[in-house]
Write a structure and sequence with these properties.
heterodimer, A: mainly beta, four-stranded antiparallel β-sheet, 11 strands, about 0% helix, about 50% strand, B: mainly beta, six-stranded mixed β-sheet, globular
Chain lengths: ~110, ~110
């Protein structure tokens, strides 16, 4: 399985500001996914990012709020824009493996005050 | 779209006992069913998975069963140990995505 790192591991941000989260994988992958996990909850897919194309967003998530970049096959960023306390969550990236498998990074724990 | 239900939400067992977590899915086209373990402060870890052409799969103390007709699948952990304590998530494939269950918090008491 791939080794995935995320930066930052945690952050405390003021409302109205933006934070960019980085996801780095140690091998080339086709698909990268961004999830949100609110405290004590399950994982909700924000968007799917393929290299060389626009990210595909799930219902309830929009590009203006969560812009995503995928400049190459090993890296992606998710920006949480104009943050409010409701954006306090764990943000997880994952990558596809062989045949539908997904492997997750350690997550970024975001607190918005 | 796909919906995945997971039960129970919490499960407490004595060390050495077995634990069973059950999930049901709604989309008959789903063909891949992974299970993840999430420890406190960490990302989910893939621990076992099963595909729709298989009814059961085992890996040491953990096993997963799939009933395609009833659209449910289960995780079985035998001889539980305190280090099995974590939140477990089931998931089902839906197009090129995974839809996750609501999670089960397993506590194993020594």
């Amino acid at each position: 399985s791939a080794v995935i790192s995320q930066k930052p591991s945690r952050d405390i941000c003021q409302r109205g500001t933006s934070l960019t989260i980085q996801c780095q994988v140690d091998s080339q992958v086709t698909m990268m996914f961004w999830y949100r996990q609110q405290p004590g909850q399950s994982l909700t897919l924000i968007a799917t990012a393929n290299q060389g194309s626009e990210a595909t967003y799930e219902s309830g998530f929009v590009i203006d709020k969560f812009p995503i970049s995928r400049p190459n096959l090993t890296f992606s960023t998710l920006t949480v824009s104009n943050m409010s306390p409701e954006d306090s969550s764990i943000y997880l990236c994952s990558v596809d493996g062989q045949a539908d498998e997904q492997y997750f990074g350690p997550g970024t724990r975001l607190t918005v005050t | 779209g796909e919906n995945v239900e997971q039960h129970p939400s919490t499960l407490s067992v004595q060390e050495g006992d077995s634990a069973v977590i059950k999930c049901t899915y709604s989309d008959s086209a789903s063909n891949y069913f992974p299970w993840y373990k999430q420890e406190l402060g960490k990302g989910p870890q893939l621990i076992i998975d099963i595909r729709s052409n298989v009814g059961e799969k085992k890996d040491q103390r953990i096993a997963v069963t799939l009933n395609k007709t009833a659209k449910h699948f289960s995780l079985h952990i035998t001889e539980t140990q305190p280090e099995d304590s974590a939140v477990y998530f089931c998931a089902a494939s839906y197009t090129d995505k995974l839809i996750f269950g609501t999670g089960t918090r397993l506590q194993v008491f020594p």
